[in-house]
Write a structure and sequence with these properties.
655 residues
C-alpha cells in the first residue's frame, strides 16, 4: 500500500503544479489576491507531496521491498544500510525523484521567504518553478516511475545490489551536493524570467538572488571537487579529472555561473550589463538541463552516466523550449535592459570583469564543443571521432591561465579608470614577485607550463596579499589596531570582497596542485611474497597476501612495505582486490573491484592499486603511482569553500 501512496503523491503533485500555473494567470487577469495566495499554497502542497514520495521510496529501499522494480535493481539484502539509502540517487528513476525533492526544498523556501515580498516578481517566479517541477513530475509519473512494480512472474527474494563503485562514502555526499548546486540555479533563473515577464528589469531581481546564486555556486563547486576526490580515491587511475562528458556537464554551468556571479557585481555597482546578466543566467540554467540530458540520454559513454533511455529527446526538447522562450522574452524586453552607464576605460575594474566574463564563456564553449563533437560527427558522418584529454588540455590551458592572470589583475584595478598613479602604486610588487618566481623556476630547469602556472600564481597571491596588507595598514594607522585585529575587522565589514579574495586564493592553490600532474610517475609489477619493485627513489616489497570474506564481498588484501632510498620505512599500504556478490552461482553477476590505498603527504601521494591476483602462484599484480602536489588541489578546494562561506555570512549590523 505504501508504494501506491508514493505514486499517488506524485500524481497529486503534478496536478497541484498545473493548477498553480492556472491560478497565477487567472490572478494576472482579474487581480484577485486570493488566487495568488492559492498559487503559493499549491506550490507548497506540491513540494510536500514530492517530499512524502521521496520519504516513501527511501523507506522501501532501506526495508528491501523487492516488489518495487527500482529497489530490486539497486539494492540487495547484503547491501549496507547506508548504501541502501544512497541507492535513492543511484538509478534513473530514483535520481529524478531526488532531483524533484531538492527542487521542492528550494521552491518551498522561496515561497515562504517571499510570501509578502517581491509582489511584482513572485507570481511569475511561481510559474517558472511550477513549469520546471511539472516537467520532472511528468517524467516521474509517466516515463520513469520510481514506484513501478517488479516485472516478474515469481517473488523476488533478493535484488541486484548496488554497483561497487558507488559503495563509497564520497558517493553518499557527492551527488546530493552536486544536485544542490545544479538545481539551485532554478531560483535565479526563475527570478530573471519573472523580471522579463513583469518588466521590472532593474536590479531588484539581482539583489533577490545574489545570495541564492552564491549558495548554489558553492554547492556546485563542492560537488565537482568531491567528484574529483571520488574519482581519485575509487577508480584506480591516479587522476581526479579526465574531461569525461559527465564531468564536463557539471563544469559548463559552473563556468557560466561563475561569470554570472562576477557580472552581477557590475550591475549592482554601476547599473551595467543588464542584458548580459540575463543571457548568463539563461545559459547557466539551460546548461543544467542539458547536462542532465547528457547524463540520462545514453548519447555519451561515461562511468558516471545512467543507461540509455527514452528520456533523452524529452530533455533535449525542454532545453530548446527554455532557450526559445527565454530569448524571446529577452528580445521583447531588450529596450528596457539598456543602460546609460558605459565602460569609461579599458583599464577600469569594469573592463577587467568583462574580460573575465568573455574568457569564462569562451572556455565554456570550448568544453561544450569538445564534449559534443563526437556526437555531432557521428550524426553527420556516421563515424564517431573521439576527443580526449589532449584536446581539452591544449584548448583550455591557455584560457585558464588567462583567467588566472585576471584573478590577480582585477583587485589592482580601480572602478571607472585606473590612473597612472594607481598603476605605479599597485602593480610593481606583484609583477616583481611573479617575474622573480619565473626566473628562479627557469634556472632550476622546470618546463614552460610549470613556469607559467607557478609565476602567475605568485603574481596573483602577491596582488591579493597586497590588498589585504593595504587594508590592514590603513586601519592600523587610523584606528591604532593590531594587524590581526585589523584583518578580522576588515573582513567582517566587507565580507563579500575579502571572502571573494580568499576564494581566489583557494583557486590559485588548486592551480599549483594541478602542476603536479607534470611530474607523475608510475610502474606495474607482479610481486610474490618477499619480492620488490623500485620507483622514484622508493622500494616496494610485498610482505604478505591475505584473504577475507565479508558480508557483501570477498577480498584479497596485499600488505606492501614502502621504504625510501636510505632503507627507512615510509609506510605500509593495503590495497585490495574485491569480488562483490561472490556467492552468486552465476559468474557473470560477480563484480570484481580494486579498492586502492594511498599514502598522502603535502609533497606527494604514493598511490597503490591491486590490479589482479594469481592465487596459484601467490602473485599480486600491482600498479604504483607517485603523484606530486595532489593534496594542494583538495586544500585549495577547502579554502575556496571557506572564502565563499565568508562572502555568504550575514553582515553584523552596527550598533
Amino acid at each position: 500500500m505504501t508504494p501506491v501512496a508514493g505514486g499517488y503523491a506524485l500524481n497529486l503533485a503534478l496536478g497541484f503544479s498545473l493548477f498553480s500555473i492556472i491560478s497565477v494567470f487567472w490572478f494576472h487577469y482579474n487581480k484577485d489576491a486570493r488566487l495568488y495566495f492559492t498559487a503559493q499554497r499549491l506550490v507548497l502542497g506540491s513540494c510536500l507531496l514530492v517530499g512524502f514520495a521521496t520519504f516513501v521510496l527511501a523507506a522501501e529501499l532501506i526495508n528491501s521491498n523487492f516488489d518495487i522494480d527500482y529497489v530490486a535493481h539497486y539494492t540487495s539484502l547484503e547491501t549496507p544500510a547506508v548504501y541502501k539509502l544512497t541507492a535513492l540517487w543511484a538509478g534513473q528513476e530514483g535520481s529524478l525523484l531526488f532531483w524533484l525533492f531538492i527542487l521542492s526544498i528550494y521552491a518551498g523556501t522561496v515561497v515562504i521567504q517571499n510570501q509578502r515580498r517581491n509582489v511584482n516578481l513572485m507570481p511569475w517566479v511561481l510559474v517558472v518553478l511550477s513549469v520546471v517541477m511539472g516537467f520532472f513530475l511528468v517524467l516521474t509519473n509517466f516515463v520513469a516511475n520510481p514506484f513501478a512494480p517488479t516485472d516478474a512472474d515469481f517473488q523476488v527474494m533478493n535484488g541486484n545490489g548496488l554497483n561497487p563503485l558507488l559503495q563509497n562514502a564520497t558517493m553518499a555526499i557527492h551527488p546530493p551536493t552536486l544536485y544542490l548546486g545544479y538545481i539551485g540555479f532554478t531560483v535565479p533563473f526563475a527570478f530573471a524570467i519573472a523580471a522579463l515577464i513583469s518588466g521590472d528589469t532593474g536590479s531588484l531581481w539581482i539583489r533577490s538572488v545574489r545570495r541564492w546564486t552564491l549558495v548554489t555556486w558553492m554547492f556546485l563547486s563542492i560537488g565537482i571537487i568531491l567528484g574529483g576526490w571520488w574519482a581519485y580515491q575509487e577508480l584506480g587511475w591516479g587522476g581526479y579529472w579526465a574531461w569525461d562528458p559527465v564531468e564536463n556537464a557539471s563544469f559548463m554551468p559552473w563556468l557560466t555561473g561563475t561569470a554570472f556571479i562576477h557580472s552581477i557585481l557590475i550591475q549592482e555597482k554601476r547599473d551595467m550589463l543588464k542584458t548580459w546578466n540575463m543571457v548568463l543566467i539563461i545559459l547557466t540554467f539551460s546548461l543544467v538541463i542539458f547536462g542532465t540530458f547528457l547524463t540520462r540520454s545514453g548519447v555519451m559513454s561515461s562511468v558516471h552516466s545512467f543507461s540509455a533511455s527514452s528520456l533523452g529527446p524529452l530533455f533535449l526538447g525542454f532545453v530548446f523550449f527554455l532557450l526559445a522562450s527565454s530569448f524571446a522574452l529577452l528580445a521583447w524586453r531588450y529596450s528596457s535592459l539598456k543602460s546609460d552607464s558605459k565602460i569609461q576605460s579599458i583599464s577600469s575594474r569594469e573592463s577587467g570583469f568583462v574580460f573575465n566574463n568573455v574568457l569564462f564563456v569562451v572556455l565554456c564553449f570550448a568544453v561544450f564543443w569538445g564534449t559534443m563533437f563526437p556526437v555531432l560527427t557521428e550524426a553527420v558522418q556516421g563515424t564517431k571521432i573521439t576527443v580526449g584529454p589532449p584536446f581539452f588540455n591544449q584548448i583550455v590551458t591557455p584560457l585558464a591561465l588567462a583567467l588566472l592572470l585576471l584573478t590577480g589583475v582585477g583587485p589592482l584595478l580601480v572602478w571607472r579608470k585606473t590612473s597612472k598613479t594607481s598603476f605605479y602604486k599597485n602593480f610593481p610588487i606583484p609583477i616583481f614577485i611573479g617575474l622573480t618566481a619565473a626566473i628562479v623556476l627557469i634556472i632550476i630547469g622546470f618546463g614552460s607550463s610549470v613556469v607559467m602556472t607557478a609565476s602567475l600564481s605568485a603574481f596573483v597571491l602577491a596582488a591579493i596579499m597586497l590588498e589585504f596588507g593595504k587594508g590592514m595598514q590603513i586601519r592600523k594607522t587610523k584606528l591604532g589596531e593590531t594587524y590581526s585585529a585589523s584583518l578580522m575587522h576588515m573582513i567582517s565589514r566587507n565580507r563579500s570582497r575579502y571572502g571573494g579574495y580568499i576564494a581566489h586564493v583557494g583557486i590559485v592553490i588548486m592551480f599549483l596542485g594541478f602542476t603536479g600532474k607534470a611530474f607523475d610517475q608510475e610502474a606495474e609489477w607482479g610481486l610474490r611474497k618477499g619480492e620488490e619493485g623500485h620507483l622514484a627513489g622508493y622500494r616496494f616489497s610485498l610482505v604478505q597476501l591475505s584473504e577475507a570474506e565479508r558480508p557483501n564481498h570477498y577480498a584479497w588484501i596485499a600488505e606492501i612495505s614502502v621504504e625510501d632510498i636510505g632503507g627507512e620505512k615510509v609506510t605500509s599500504l593495503h590495497p585490495e582486490k574485491r569480488v562483490y556478490f561472490h556467492n552468486n552461482p552465476n559468474p557473470d553477476r560477480r563484480q570484481p573491484h580494486s579498492e586502492l590505498d594511498i599514502h598522502s603527504t603535502f609533497r606527494r601521494d604514493i598511490y597503490s592499486v591491486l590490479s589482479a591476483v594469481d592465487t596459484e602462484s601467490g602473485t599480486a599484480f600491482m600498479k604504483i603511482m607517485i603523484n606530486p602536489l595532489v593534496r594542494l588541489v583538495w586544500i585549495g578546494g577547502i579554502i575556496l569553500v571557506f572564502g565563499t562561506l565568508i562572502s555568504l555570512w550575514p553582515r553584523k549590523e552596527a550598533n
